[in-house]
TrEMBL record:
Gene3D superfamilies: Medium-chain alcohol dehydrogenases, catalytic domain, NAD(P)-binding Rossmann-like Domain. Keywords: Metal-binding, Oxidoreductase, Zinc. It comes from Myxococcus stipitatus (strain DSM 14675 / JCM 12634 / Mx s8). One of its GO terms (molecular function) is metal ion binding. This is Glucose 1-dehydrogenase.
Length: 362
């Protein structure tokens, strides 16, 4: 079958003819891949920053944001049948008995680091014509959502983050109502964070690098989130214009921008980090002022990665809500669809800008 693979040892990325997987267990499902989203993690992998092939192989099949159609089910599979649309989860638990997260079904909180991740770490990804997965890691997609459901996995980042936010803010003696939020960065994760925050009732502003006009600003403002450029507006001016945010949702992946924006966070506020910087930045941080701000204002810094099964369910429910509330808003996030042969050009930006680029196999 056709697959897109990275060869770390040879520093190559190319389309290969890989063995087509077959069912090996009664609870497994065979899926025909329809679409695979491309993201910054893929860019880091094809830059050989990280990405680990499965044991015994010199290549890793890429892709972890996926939508596919069930073509075969094992005899013990329940809840799915041939013709259903599905999205798979990415991370698989570590094998250690001492890891309470993985043994409790929450590998997104793994404490050992020995988890595997499809398309990222020691397990083949989904950027191939077919893949096989256990039914426990698949989520059924309503047929009417299949044209936007490739956005499910990046949306789970926001779903998990806001679930954690709710738990953290239970620390307050009163039950806070949604207040002001700032989304730092306007890529796919940022845009989906905007929709999630708006749905939860937050007055949300996007604070990103590029000046208007641009497609990212247009997408944010089309759903009611004002867009401001960090090139024009300082954190202090941001507060004057939009008020001090109760939540900052970072989706830019740049440390300097993140810690500059942190200055605007309100008392009792929560700063959510979702981006992983791909390059080193020189910056200075006034440690005394930084600690004073956090301590004297009861602020919280939260880092979050991966997502749980419940976050995938929540994401699929929210996709339906987003489509009903903002017709065309999700479609606007998908800039273009490309054949597998264009993967390298897409992931390195040679295929053009925009928001979300998708590889399609049909």
């Amino acid at each position: 079958m056709k697959a897109v693979a990275v060869f770390p040892g040879k520093r190559q990325v190319r389309v290969i003819d890989a063995p087509e997987p077959e069912l090996q267990a009664p609870t497994q499902v065979k899926v025909r891949t329809h679409e695979v989203g491309v993201c910054g993690t893929d860019k880091d992998i094809v830059s050989f920053t990280y990405g680990t092939p499965p044991p015994g192989l010199d290549y890793l099949i890429l892709g972890h944001e996926c939508l596919g159609e069930v073509v075969e089910v094992g005899p013990a599979v329940q809840g799915l049948q041939k013709g259903d649309w599905v999205v798979p989860r990415v991370r698989r638990p570590c094998p250690h008995a001492l890891c309470p997260a993985c043994r409790g079904g929450h590998p997104d909180f793994c404490i050992t680091g020995d988890f595997t991740e499809r398309g990222i770490k020691e397990a083949p990804g989904f950027c191939s014509e077919h893949f096989v997965e256990d039914v426990a890691y698949l989520h059924r997609v309503a047929t009417e959502l299949h044209d936007v459901a490739v956005l499910t996995e990046p949306l789970t980042i926001a779903e998990k983050a806001l679930r954690q936010l709710d738990l953290i803010q239970e620390r307050l003696p009163w039950r806070p109502v949604p207040g002001r939020a700032v989304v730092l960065g306007a890529g796919p994760v940022g845009q989906l964070g905007v929709l999630t925050l708006l749905r939860r009732g937050f007055a949300t502003t996007v604070y990103s690098h590029s000046r208007k006009p641009n497609v990212k600003a247009e997408a944010a403002e089309a759903v009611g989130a004002p867009y401001l450029s960090t090139q024009d507006i300082s954190p202090e001016e941001l507060v004057r214009r939009a008020g001090a945010p109760d939540v900052i949702y970072e989706a830019a992946g740049t440390a300097k921008a993140a810690f500059e924006a942190l200055k605007s966070l309100s008392p009792n506020g929560v700063f959510i980090f979702t981006g992983v910087p791909s390059k080193s930045e020189q910056m200075s941080l006034g440690g005394d002022d930084f600690l004073k701000q956090l301590v004297l204002n009861n602020q919280v810094l939260l880092g979050t990665v991966n997502a749980a099964a419940s976050d995938f369910d929540a994401a699929l429910e929210d996709l339906a809500r987003f489509r009903a509330r903002w017709p065309g808003g999700l479609e606007r996030l998908i800039t273009a669809r490309h054949p597998p042969e264009s993967f390298f050009d897409v992931v390195t930006g040679k295929a053009g800008g925009g928001i979300k680029h998708v590889i399609t196999f049909t």
